[in-house]
Amino acid sequence: MTSERPASNRPSHYSMLHHCLNAVATAPPAASTPAHRGLAELLPSLPSPLALAGPGDAPPQTNEQALSLAAAAQMLLYQLETDETSSPIGWETTGRIRHALGELSAQLGAALRREKAEQVRGLYVIIDPQVTGGREPLDIAVAAVNGGARMLQLRDKLRDKGESLPLAMALQELCQRHGAMLIINDHADVAAAVGSAGLHVGQTDLPVAQARQILQPHQVLGRSNREFEQLVESQEMGADHVAFGAIYATTSKGVARSPQGPARLRQAKELATAPLVAIGGINLHNLPPVVEAGADAICVTAAVALAPEPEAAAAQMTAAIESAGGRV
């Protein structure tokens, strides 16, 4: 049986840990979840910490704040574990706290991803350094968000990650300033490093479960689909949004595929329980039927990146989405 150490001479790490645990356990956003209740039931068994006072005493008011506190608690718990002589709690209690924090982080992350899923709408522009018409990728991105794009995706298939990382960081800063979402294509480690809104994977890329192990709990994950069965499978895997295409003929990815057309997109919408992104060959002229078929977001590359005036092209497409009844 494990005995707890005396409460005297506790290190500040434990006081801070207890403070974080108490705040997270009583957080109003999701305080009725099983993970919150489990953590609240565990707290009375812990030694009383030294008092901490200050503006941080107020419990978190949002899931994001609660998740940040849970992450801080996990780090403090790790610091206590590395110095067993100063920890006032035994290994058994430490394990219970670690498990409770893991479950809580997963639940808070899922809640945050559901919130972000509501932002999957409007114009979604892929930034590909190979598709810029000779211009800087960041300039295309700035034009896209100024023109109303709600989402950007960095798709950089040819360059090394070290070469691509500065662009990813610049795009993340741009999106944060404009309230847009940045999605990183394929590279989960880059998405985690820059703190992007999320990651997008294809059918042959990193599986959803393994990508989740690299991403932060709040980062969304989208997955490409060509068949109805794939779309259903992606949702069963836990994808936060699903892409379906190619809607029209396109060779922007170097592979020509038979177009799906708006009719099959409408069928895909009937199967979709997550936000649906339409992609492939969409431009200003053929966009309305795609929106009318139920697409939540319209994903394009060349229609903006190769336009003579990318900002004007993005603005026109955003207006067309709204005119067709889509959310922007």
Provide an overview of this structure.
The chain has 13 helices and 8 strands. The chain is elongated, with a radius of gyration of 23 Å. The protein has helices spanning 12-25, 34-42, 63-81, 91-117, 137-146, 161-178, 188-194, 208-214, 228-237, 261-271, 287-292, 302-305, 310-323, and strands at residues 122-127, 151-154, 181-185, 198-201, 220-225, 241-245, 276-279, 297-300. The termini are far apart. Strands 1-2-3-4-5-6-7-8 form an 8-stranded parallel beta barrel, surrounded by 8 helices. It folds into 2 domains: 12-114, no CATH class; 118-323, Alpha-Beta Barrel (TIM Barrel). It has 328 residues and is of the alpha/beta class.
Give the distance, in angstroms, between the N- and C-terminal Cα atoms: 59 Å
Widest sheet: strand order?
A: 1-2-3-4-5-6-7-8
Q: What quaternary form is this? A: single chain
Series of secondary-structure elements, N-terminal to C-terminal? HHHHEHEHEHEHEHEHEHEHH
Q: What structural category characterises the helix and strand content?
A: alpha/beta
Q: CATH top level of the largest domain?
A: Alpha Beta
β-sheet strand percentage: 5-15%
Rg from alpha-carbon coordinates: 23 Å
Task: Looking at this protein, list some descriptive labels.
328 residues, alpha/beta, TIM Barrel, 8-stranded parallel beta barrel, 13 helices, 8 strands, 12% strand, disordered N terminus
Question: What is the secondary structure topology, with strand pairs?
Answer:
Elements: H1 12-25, H2 34-42, H3 63-81, H4 91-117, E1 122-127, H5 137-146, E2 151-154, H6 161-178, E3 181-185, H7 188-194, E4 198-201, H8 208-214, E5 220-225, H9 228-237, E6 241-245, H10 261-271, E7 276-279, H11 287-292, E8 297-300, H12 302-305, H13 310-323
Parallel strand pairs: 1-2, 1-8, 2-3, 3-4, 4-5, 5-6, 6-7, 7-8
